Structure formats: structure tokens, C-alpha cells
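Section 5.1 Outputs to date
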Amino acid sequence: MAELRYNPLLDDWTMVSADRSKRPDMPKDFCPFCPGSGKVPETYDVLKYDNDFPILSQNPPQPDNIGSDFYKTQESYGKCEVILYSPDHEGKFYDLSQDHIEKLVRLWIERFEELKKDQKIKYILPFENKGKEVGTTMIHPHGQIYAYPIMPLRLRLELKNSKAYFEKTGTNIYDQIIKDEKDFEKRIVFENDSFIVLLPFFANYPFETYIIAKDKISSFSDFNDKLVTDFARTLKELTGAFDQVYNKAFPYMMAIYQEPVNSPEYEGAKDFYRFNVKFFPPLRGENSIKYNASSETAAWVHGNPRRVEETAEELRRAYRSFINEG
């Protein structure tokens, strides 16, 4: 059974799926994403794989009859896809060739264009969980895409505040972020023609890192060949730099943020929002984790245990080291 349950305190929805807790444990040496598993083609570069245990589906079950006018339920409509980055079970993202990563970017574009055709879909979020520190159990390099039937609360807040800032100043809020960060300089890691990589002034995690499109790009629909090339290079260089910070695999949560789809109430989002990628790495030191504890969970008030001006310099050094080694 899967359903969405409404939270009237936050005007938000929780995805509930009892079936996901019943997922079988895989045999120790078995990976469904590896060629030879019988689950994927014998040869592939990048691949879309429909999640075997989706919490959202385009043929959802009826919600349990346990709600009310106050405690509303809704079908868990949507789509959950796995995006396989490579057939190499223990491969590193930054070891992939430039051409290979461009194929991945084009697959993300293809899936965005396909999923937004479904008028019930309101938001499409490609994301990745990397490392046991964030709960990853499958080390095969992969990400996921969730296509939601509702607008996630974080996105509603970002869009609301971005629109309000644009209406007040006539400036896209991400252009203002880029300007302030370039004026200060010390939180920027690197940039190219199309994207800038920085640790924002307000980062919640010591190594929280943003990739922001410089031009008026609000979704994968706006990508051309130049953007594909520059975005692939940006991802390769940033993930390579991450692993140089402590000379070991660097865990993170990553999400690709875009404008909503099939949502007339957000018409004009291209003016006030911007394509961006946010990385949330949980490390605060080589062997220490920055956990979300009571303040973060209960009040949504984060405490960053380190100054990002210092961690930005560490990441810049790691970036230079990665580039020099390459």
C-alpha cells in the first residue's frame, strides 16, 4: 500500500509506502545494475531503469480508507526512476570520460522531457545519494528521478521567495547570489562559461556546494550542446575535487533543481528562478559527520559547525589538486 498523507500544520504531503519496508535483501554478491544480473542489458553506457519498489507510480493503489476531511489522503501518483551512470560496479563518477558524462546529461534531459508530458506531474527532481553516511546500500554508481504530483514544500518556498525578490528588485535572485559571491570571491570554487560553483554564504553544511547556471536557464529544456558540455565538465571536476578533500570517497546528497512543470501558477518562473544543483555533503571533518539533530529537525534551524569561507578554501585546494593530477 502506498499513498500521500496531508500535513495540515505545514500544508505539505508525506509519501507513505508500507511495501518498501518489505524489500528483499539482495544476495551479498548480487547487483541488479550490473551486466549479467538479468535485470539490465548486457552492454550499456547509461541507462534508465524503472524502480522495482517505487513509492510513486503511474498506476497507484487506492489509499487506505483511514483519512478524513481533515486528514486527507491522495494517490501516490508519479514516477520513480533509477538512472545508471555506468556498468562499472565500483566506478567513480569523475573517472568517466567527458563523452560518457555528456551521455548521462542527455539522458537526464530525455527523461525530463518525457516525464513532463504527464499533466499530473508537477515537479521533476533528479537526485543522488552517495555513500553509506547518507544511507546508500547500493554502491553501483547511480542516481534517481522522482516525478511528484505535488509541489514539494522546499520548492514552494524557494519559488515564492525568488518571485518576491524579482517583483521587488527586477533581478533574478540567483543573479544576485552570483554577484555577491563574485564580489567576495572567497566562497567560489571554480567557474566556466556556463556555470559557477560556490559554497553559499548561508550554507547549512560545511561543504554544501551549489552549481548555478549563469544565463537564463531554468530547466533541462533550455540546454543546448554547449550547456551539455559545460555541465558535464562541471560535474566531473566537482566530484573529483570532493574526493580530493580527504583523499577518500566523499559522501553527499545531490539534487538538480528546475522550474515546475504543468503548473500555470508558476508561469514566468524562467524570469525569477534558475537551473541549479545543490550538494549536501554530511562530513564536517575527515572522520566526523554533521548530523541533523534536534534544532535542525524540530525547528528547521540549522547550525553549521564550520565557516564556509574556510571549507571553500579546502575545496578550492582539492579542485586545483584534481585538475593538476588530470
